[in-house]
Design a protein that fits this description.
The protein has about 230 residues and is an alpha+beta fold. About 35% of the residues lie in helices and about 15% in strands. The chain has six helices and ten strands; from the N terminus they run βββααααβββαββαββ. The strands form four sheets. The chain has a three-stranded antiparallel beta sheet, with no helix packed on it.
Amino acid sequence: MTTTIKNDIFISDERGTDFLLSKNLTQSRLEKPNRFSLISRNASFLLEVDMIKKQVAWNKGKKLSPIHRENLSISHMGQIAWNKGKKMPYTEARRLYDKRQRGVSKPKPKNFSDTMRKVNPPRQRKKLSTGYILIYKPNYLGSRKGKINKGFIQEHRYILGMFLGRVLTKNEIVHHLNGNKKDNRIENLILCKNNSEHTHMHHKMNDLIYDLIKRGKVYYNGKNFIYN
């Protein structure tokens, strides 16, 4: 395609490359593409990209019917996944990445746990797997200071400590008379000086149960696995 603009000739070849050819034969040469010709050539491409972006997918907002879903599940039934049994290749870049990440821990800011306590306040009461009840008393001297269950204390220790007007020592153990760890009434709690005294009390209770069974006052219900 040839176009005459004043004293120059504008030529476009089959590949779409634009050139300017001067009319003066003594100075005739092929020059670099004109910036205006490049803009006009890219305009059509940009217009097509813009139109593609504005297009809406044909299946947008549509849902498959139950029958269609069932047919798809049946059609794929028994097929083996293309990646079954295959492993991701362990490349050199992957090995170096693992080496950099090994043993690297992100530092936490100071007072991180206290900040998280303010953002996500803990539940005031929760149950342990051992059956004991924990209550949240962060200002109580006997509450836990470690990272696990920080600010919590066992409910039976808190109730008996408040009744005695002091904090229980680590060696002191609270015993439940009826054996129910959830029953933390003050009349159901007995303070033991140490673990040996607490164990001795359990043995005495077992001896009492055996004595009642011999007398016929208590019998074992094998159906419900309880003593009646």
